[in-house]
């Protein structure tokens, strides 16, 4: 059974309005000896060590570590430590909704922290169930080479996104929160086309039924496509179209 002892904590349902009600699978290094949430949290934070967004002790520049993701993860991990059998891959896929087309991998932390063989097994299981993998790594330049072709390179500038594409990655990039919601796409300095995340764009434009990640294929790294741009929606973007 693939579960918390291997560093895989999975749940079949989600209240995340951006992704939709799809399975969420958190990857860390193995949790065999973890006894408490603070220990698990340290493993998750260590997976992000070196990320430029994690520059403050409380992670306030990172959307995941400063937002609701960490609170939801804390609740899940505390339950998983007590009853790991409820948070296995098998159970998450069994309890997913019928409409599910994708799985969000590592909504907090970086998937490069998982053992390569565990990561490979998780991704194979997801895809064998006919589902897409939605995942991102900030460490595509350094320790994430085995993730290429399976997860998106998470870039902090358009120049970095060009480099990632040149190295064979599908890429995502953060663009300023001042990006106008009327403009759905742009071009990088290297001439690569990027499109604004359809889920964020439809929400910013006030659509009654915004696009969700479950509806969109753009962040499945196995598919060809443009760079995907996420307007800054962290704590510094308060009051903009992208953070409401």
Task: Describe what this molecule looks like in 3D.
- This protein is of the alpha/beta class and 244 residues long.
- The protein has one domain (4-237).
- It contains 7 helices and 10 strands.
- It has a 6-stranded mixed beta sheet with strand order 5-6-7-10-9-8. A 4-stranded mixed beta sheet has the order 1-2-3-4, with helices on both faces.
- Strand 3 (102-105), helix 5 and strand 4 (132-134) form a beta-alpha-beta unit.
- The radius of gyration is 17 Å and the shape is globular.
- It starts with 7 loop residues before the first strand and ends in a 13-residue tail after the last strand.
Shape type: globular
**Gyration radius over CA:** 17 Å
Tell me the total number of β-strands: 10
End-to-end C-alpha gap = 40 Å
What tags apply to this protein structure?
27% helix; 16% strand; 4-stranded mixed β-sheet; 244 residues; single chain; 6-stranded mixed β-sheet; alpha/beta
Summarize this, please?
With 244 residues, the protein is α/β, with parallel strands linked by helices. Helix content is 27%, strand content 16%.
Sequence-ordered SSE layout with sheet pairings:
Blueprint lengths: L7 E4 L12 E4 L9 H11 L15 H4 L1 H15 L6 H6 L7 E4 L10 H13 L3 E3 L1 E2 L14 E4 L2 H9 L4 E5 L9 E3 L5 E4 L1 H7 L22 E5 L13
Parallel strand pairs: 2-3, 3-4, 5-6, 6-7, 7-10, 9-10
Antiparallel strand pairs: 1-2, 8-9
